């Protein structure tokens, strides 16, 4: 996650670029950072879900028979189960927050590039739309603006 602040600093560098090629390379680099961060977070989420599932498999029998245990053990089991549930919820929220933050570099880069290179960006957008509409055999009236 240390790549996140560094990649956000890359937005400052992108704003100061003087050539389109430098800007393009920076946008690609920031996109790569976002993709890598999202992949790492996704993997961590899968591992966490697997661990929580394993915990639930083990403790489901205890949950079903919790009243058959001595009161002190019942209390300890309830505390453990509640703590794991809370930790799972906290991890889910943390992963959502980090996923949102990991999108900042690419979103920021695209917005900054769209503003800085507006004419080139509009030309590229029109070219892409023209290709899409030509494949779909739709008249691209919007492109004549």
Net shape? elongated
The span between the termini is 43 Å
Biggest β-sheet strands, sense, barrel: none
Percent of residues in beta strands?
under 5%
Helix content: over 70%
In round numbers, the mean pLDDT is 87
Total domain units: 1
Structural class: mainly alpha
Output the number of helix runs. Answer: 5
Give me the count of strands: 0
How would you describe this structure in keywords?
mainly alpha, 145 residues, 85% helix
Explain briefly what this protein structure is.
With 145 residues, the protein is mainly α.
Which helices and strands appear, and what pairs or packs with what?
Elements: H1 3-16, H2 20-64, H3 71-102, H4 104-116, H5 118-136
Helix pairs in contact: 1-2, 1-4, 2-3, 2-4, 4-5
Structure description:
The chain has 145 residues and is mainly alpha-helical. It has one domain. The protein contains 5 helices and no strands. The radius of gyration is 25 Å and the shape is elongated. The mean pLDDT is 87.
């Amino acid at each position: 996650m240390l790549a996140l602040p560094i990649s956000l600093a890359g937005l400052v560098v992108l704003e100061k670029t003087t050539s389109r090629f430098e800007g393009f390379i920076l946008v690609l680099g920031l996109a790569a950072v976002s993709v890598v961060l999202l992949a790492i977070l996704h993997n961590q989420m899968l591992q966490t879900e697997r661990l929580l599932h394993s915990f639930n498999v083990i403790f489901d029998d205890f949950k079903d028979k919790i009243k058959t245990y001595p009161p002190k053990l019942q209390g300890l089991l309830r505390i453990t189960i509640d703590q794991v549930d809370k930790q799972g919820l906290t991890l889910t929220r943390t992963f959502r927050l980090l996923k949102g933050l990991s999108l900042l570099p690419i979103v920021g880069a695209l917005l900054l590039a769209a503003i800085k290179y507006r004419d080139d960006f509009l030309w590229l957008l029109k070219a892409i739309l023209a290709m899409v509409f030509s494949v779909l055999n739709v008249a691209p009236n919007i492109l004549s603006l």
